[in-house]
Design brief:
Elements: E1 22-24, E2 28-30, E3 42-45, H1 50-54, E4 63-66, H2 69-82, E5 90-94, E6 96-97, E7 100-101, H3 102-110, E8 120-124, H4 129-138, E9 142-145, H5 150-168, H6 184-216, E10 221-227, E11 233-239, E12 242-247, E13 253-255, H7 257-264, H8 272-278, E14 281-284, E15 289-290, H9 291-294, H10 300-303, E16 310-313, H11 315-322, H12 328-340, H13 344-362
Parallel strand pairs: 3-4, 3-5, 5-8, 8-9, 14-16
Antiparallel strand pairs: 1-2, 6-7, 10-11, 10-15, 12-13
């Protein structure tokens, strides 16, 4: 196993020419094939996936190995100060390390400007929905179970590099399509409903904001970065339903009694009228996806869902009422179904169904 010595950096290959993006079909930007853009070098921290990685990558040239978070952080810190051009293209880290956890190392790395945009992938002996949610919710880019496959890793790393670059640089074409725009009737309906809704519901919204401030003492709004049409990143507004002053043993926040009531009647979503007015969202569309979840939908099959705008309601919300537990594949497929059947009159039909569901819920 390679021992990291900060003053003696591993030799690095000359980076390949930038790989141009190409457009596939009519709805997704994808990177060129792996052979045209090989991953130059990665760093692995831990021991869990050591054997599978060393069998597929050349030690020192393609793969740098560190057993502990301390060694990895010190080496990366020194490299960022002296040889920024030699920084690894990805960081792969065991969830549990001899001197800490991947979460602690991730926090330290993200505080360093030159390292914050490097894709960070976690490795575990097994993956379950809870651990995946925890890793992605924390801001890491992905979670893998060992043994690791080089081809799959390189495909994922190439996408993440392009995606992170699009967030840093407004001049770089985003890894998505920009040829979607809502029809004029759809946009007019959005604007008018949002304007009338804000005017009529402003007293209620002010009351809710006051109650949240008095009951929790924290921020009134919960703001989440989400991906909308063409991976357009926007700030999604909701009323705060959680409190940060009470914490569970696993670090999750607790929903307040007021928050539970707001969630029950979907009143926490009223600030999304502002998103609609701004053009970030539509009344009807697909689920607004947090960036951590949107990053996972990189294949042509699933990226098609970004042809449609993020919506306050849609097929997913109606189906959720009928069937409380929806699989991830079911949710993604409903997003694709909405894209395939998108029309102004289909939106009207979904709005009517949503109103009926809300009325039914209010009588329960």
């Amino acid at each position: 196993m390679t021992t990291l010595i900060p003053k003696r950096f591993p030799s690095s290959l000359t980076p390949p020419e930038p790989t141009p993006l190409r457009k596939q079909a009519h709805y997704a930007w994808v990177t060129a094939p792996p052979a045209e853009a090989p991953v130059r070098q990665i760093i692995y921290i831990g021991q869990l996936a050591y054997q599978s990685l060393t069998e597929q990558f050349v030690i020192d040239r393609e793969l740098i190995v560190a057993k502990t978070a301390f060694r990895a952080h010190y080496w990366l810190e020194q490299l960022a100060d002296i040889q920024k051009e030699s920084l690894p293209e990805a960081i792969i880290c065991d969830l549990t390390l001899p001197d800490g956890t991947a979460f602690e190392l991730f926090d330290r790395i993200r505080r360093m400007p030159h390292l914050s945009s490097i894709p960070f992938l976690a490795v575990s002996s097994q993956i379950d929905p809870a651990s995946s949610k925890q890793v992605l919710g924390y801001g890491m880019d992905d979670l893998y179970a060992y043994p690791l496959d080089r081809s799959r890793l390189e495909t994922r790393i190439r996408f993440l590099k392009t995606y992170h670059s699009s967030l840093r640089s407004p001049t770089l074409p985003p890894p998505a399509f920009n040829d979607f725009s809502p029809s004029e009737p759809k946009r007019m309906l959005d604007v008018w409903v949002a304007l009338i809704g804000l005017l009529m519901l402003s007293p209620l919204m002010l009351l809710i904001a006051l109650l949240i401030k008095v009951r929790t003492g924290g921020p009134v709004l919960h703001i989440t970065k989400c991906a909308g049409t063409g991976y357009h990143v926007f700030s999604l507004y909701k009323f705060q339903t959680m409190t940060a002053d009470r914490m569970l043993s696993d670090g999750q926040t607790v929903r307040t009694s007021l928050g539970k009531w707001l969630r029950k009647y979907n009143l926490d979503e009223l600030p999304q009228l502002i998103n609609i007015l701004r053009g970030d969202m539509s009344l009807v569309g697909n689920r607004p996806l947090p960036l951590s979840e949107a990053e996972q939908l990189t294949t042509d099959q699933w990226s098609k869902r970004f042809l449609a705008p993020a919506g306050v309601t849609g097929l997913w919300q109606i189906a959720r009422r009928r069937k409380k537990h929806l699989s991830e594949a079911d949710r993604h497929q409903m997003d694709i179904d909405y894209v395939d059947d998108a029309s102004f009159w289909n939106d009207i039909r979904l709005i009517i169904k949503t109103i009926m569901i809300l009325l039914q819920r209010s009588t329960e």
